[in-house]
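We treat protein structure as text, and this decision shapes the records that our systems exchange. Because each token names a local backbone shape, the row as a whole describes the fold. An entry from our holdings is shown next, in its original layout:
>
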Amino acid sequence: MDKTFKQHTLLIIFIVVAFIYICRLFYLQIIDDSYFLSAQNNVLQEQTIYPARGLIYDRNGELLVYNDAIYDLSVMPEQVKDLDTLAFCKVLNITKEDFIKKFERLKHQKGYAPWKPCVFERQITIPTYAAFQERLFDFHGFFVEVRTDRKYKHNNAAHVMGYIGEVTDKDIEKSDGYYRMGDFIGISGVERTYEKELGGKKGTRYVLVDSKSRSQGRYKNGEFDTPAVAGKNINLCIDYRLQQLGEELLTNKTGSVVALEPKTGEILALVSSPSYNPNLLIGRDRGKKYMELLRDPMKPLFNRTLAAPYPPGSIFKILMALTGQQEHVLTPNTAYGCHHGYMFVGCHPHGSPLPLRPAIAVSCNAYFCQVYRSIVNNPSYKHAEDAYNVFYKHIASFGLGSKLGVDLYGEGSGFLPKATFYDKIYGRFRWQATTTISLGIGQGELGITPLQMANATATVANRGYYIVPHIVRRIEGKRNPDTLYQNKHWTTIDTGYFPVVIEGMQDVVERGTAYIARIPGINIAGKTGTAQNPHGKDHSIFFAFAPVENPKIAIAVVIENAGFGATWAAPIASLMIEQYLTGKHDTRKDLKERMIKGNLNHRNDTTATQAQ
């Protein structure tokens, strides 16, 4: 009986195992199509569906960037059979040698596999596409993929929007296989920072083809297809008309304009000159055009607004006035005499002695050298180094000396020297205010980017705080979700010290060095700067905000090798303020014409490189 029981038990086990195998085979062959797909790869084409990239608008809904269809000729290498190479080359207008080189090059691409599609020829022309479609049955394994390239409605704001280009091996590695050779990715500007939002998500389509590469329709009615997800549309903070005016005013000049909305940190205009036409970096010739721009001695690809560190000159006196008050070494009534300068720092003729407000209006160098001396040699601190560290803390609280965190690639930190910097030069405790006196008037080792200048202006306009400048206002109709662009950053200066400084800045425009910037009916607070430049003529600098009562725009202008701040920078800023606040800039046609026609680049062929 034991023997019979064992036999029955073994029989049952064999039957159960056989049943499991039968069920599994039934599932794999009848129910689960994924294995069928693998078995049928020789008659299937896996085609990538490229998503439409998100559109880019300005703050008012003006379309700036849109998409244009392009055609890539792709190939499934293992499906290429009995190819009429000469006919193929004739359609593409290439030689047989070119064909061989291109085919061999595919095999060395990262992620190459003969059963995977790869791009053979990028961006074929529409006539070539039409001719290829007519002969498709002769070219087994080849097919056309439709995707989009960028088009720019206007020829402006290149540094803001950036451009897209083909992915690199590093991009492919970082994407965990999502990107493949020939795909586009944002390289600079908004296109780079917001690649995830703008790029969308690729889809996949499986198409059945016969032995002659003729399409037999979608496999399983698209059951295994995945749809592409279009990129999200973006609204920039940029006011396109203001941006356009800024670029027009900087024609034939090297420099920058940055305009912000003080209360929000939104960037209203970001102008770097010389610039380039963004439509140059699209299409088949983008690589060639890029190299031409890269070799241009004027360096149009360099974004001066974010990365060029300039000595701020006299605009720095505004921060000196605030810091001096905070450290209780300066009051509105503190007066200093000026005898055409202080030590080796010269000054222009003006009334003397002066208290704080008129000293700001006439931009007295001697006055602010004295303020700097009183800060660094403050007897409340044991050493000058201790006082300088406090000075550094106050100035840094305005966003100077470090990256602000703007949502654009390539931001520089500028340079705000720490006490340790001077320790290395002079030795610890072996320097004091007179050693570094040029800092008091915004010279010496200071380097501030135009973005930082505009941000400091916005901080004064807000009476002590700033919100990190940013370029994207809305994503798919919703507010930019990044909290970095919503939080207030307060300075170390008490709000009570701002009014007298702002009054002095109003005097600068109403009766001081920036009288040319006056706009009837609009109260402007500003400060001119004439920054010494070791490479040539002084830089013309101006920053301002308006209206004083309820600031809606803060602006900084830097024109390289242009002389006094009132000569070029102040008028340009004034015209842009008027445009933004009133919607027009033609009330002073002679001034506008003089700014546009002024050609400053011919004076010095090296001006484009001086800020780097």
